[in-house]
Design a protein that fits this description.
alpha+beta; 4-stranded antiparallel β-sheet; 4 strands
């Protein structure tokens, strides 16, 4: 990694309130915190949120948000909902692929 790339950090440690909103949304879809990997990259005035999920965390969803009041940003709330729906579909598909004879 060179000096210009932002460092990746766990969302849970960097922005705990945003992580809680994400986990609350995922729990409404019966998805647990250990089913995802939530990372963030901080660049100047934006935060890139990256959520990895699925078997071996091979599926990724990413979006950028303004740093201020991320937890109250309606775009972040919608991103969490989209993650919940996509992650649920992916986990179900992975399960059926795994049990397929």
């Amino acid at each position: 990694m060179n000096g210009t790339e932002p460092t990746r950090k766990l969302l849970r440690l960097t922005i705990p309130n945003a992580y809680k909103i994400l986990i609350d949304e995922l729990e409404s879809h019966h998805i647990h915190a250990y089913d995802i990997r939530a990372l963030c990259y901080q660049a100047s005035s934006t935060i890139d949120i990256e959520i990895q999920f699925g078997e071996n965390f091979t599926h990724t969803m990413k979006e950028s948000f303004e740093e201020k009041k991320l937890e109250k940003n309606p775009d972040f709330i919608n991103f969490c909902r989209k993650i919940g729906e996509t992650c649920k579909e992916t986990l179900i598909a992975d399960y059926f692929r795994m049990v397929k004879p």
